[in-house]
Design goal:
This protein is an alpha/beta fold and 235 residues long. The chain has one domain (11-231): Spore Coat Polysaccharide Biosynthesis Protein SpsA, Chain A (Alpha-Beta Complex). 42% of the residues lie in helices and 15% in strands. The protein is built from nine helices and seven strands, in the order H-E-H-E-H-E-H-E-H-E-H-E-H-H-E-H. A seven-stranded mixed β-sheet has the order 3-2-1-4-6-5-7, with helices on both faces. Helix 2 packs parallel to helix 3 (50-56).
Length: 235
């Protein structure tokens, strides 16, 4: 049995997938390091100064030669966390649409409630989310809840904490943004605990903070991922 002291002394790192985020990565890394010393940036084939600026801010860089997608970046980050003995990782985006100042919420919740996955819940500020992102998310929340038997409050937010059990037992098998939906579904179907902390929904119109998420294409892939989890045997 894992003791309460284990969680209080848990070794946690931050993993940030990044692709051409030179305008924001330095702020994300330096702010994250105010709360967690170890910040790993998966530079997913960037053609700008993302890696150099992330390193200048104190991040450790894992370089990917060509852009392969967020799922592959998470796969690399989880593998790195496991071989370095981390108990959990916190993942967030590099474009400042996730506020690194919310990191302590994940740490405190993990130490208190010991959930396997903690997801940032933006739906307490749902009116701030563009409808092209909000509507698919709400549909996903309903369908995911039906499939796994646990209440899903935000099906698509990538600001999460994953514990070691998830990294070891739920391999990342998708390469794109649908990887996060797939992890959530397979973990829920296996009975791992999924809990939530409220975070602010942050969206920008300018290119400096533009997300790599493609609403139509990536929502389609997430829908296919749901159907695979609905009809296919457990992986």
């Amino acid at each position: 049995m894992i003791s309460k002291n284990h969680f209080m002394c848990a070794k946690i790192c931050v993993v940030i997938p990044a692709y051409n985020n030179e305008e924001t990565i330095e702020t994300v890394v330096s702010t994250a390091r105010m709360y967690i010393e170890s910040v790993v940036v998966i530079d997913d084939g960037s053609t700008d100064n993302t890696a150099r600026l992330a390193q200048r801010a104190g991040g450790r860089i894992i370089q990917v030669e060509t852009n392969t997608g967020k799922g592959n970046a998470l796969r690399l980050g989880f593998h790195d966390a496991l071989i370095h003995g981390y108990d959990a990782v916190i993942t967030l985006d590099a474009d400042l649409q996730h506020d690194p100042g919310d990191i302590p919420k994940f740490i405190d919740h993990y130490k208190t409630h010991h959930a396997n996955i903690i997801v940032g819940n933006r739906m307490t500020h749902r009116d701030d989310i563009p409808s092209v992102r909000r509507v698919p998310n709400m549909v996903g929340m309903y369908l995911f809840t039906l499939l796994i038997g646990q209440t899903i409050k935000d099906s698509q937010c990538g600001f999460r904490l994953y514990d070691r059990a998830i990294m070891e037992q739920i391999p990342v098998v998708r390469d794109g943004f649908d990887a996060e939906a797939d992890i959530l579904l397979r973990a829920g179907k296996r009975g791992y605990t999924i809990q939530y902390v409220p975070i602010r929904a942050v969206y920008f119109e300018n290119s400096r903070h533009r997300s790599s998420y493609r609403p139509v294409k990536d929502t389609f892939h997430i829908s296919i991922t749901f159907l695979k989890n609905l009809f296919w045997k457990e992986r």
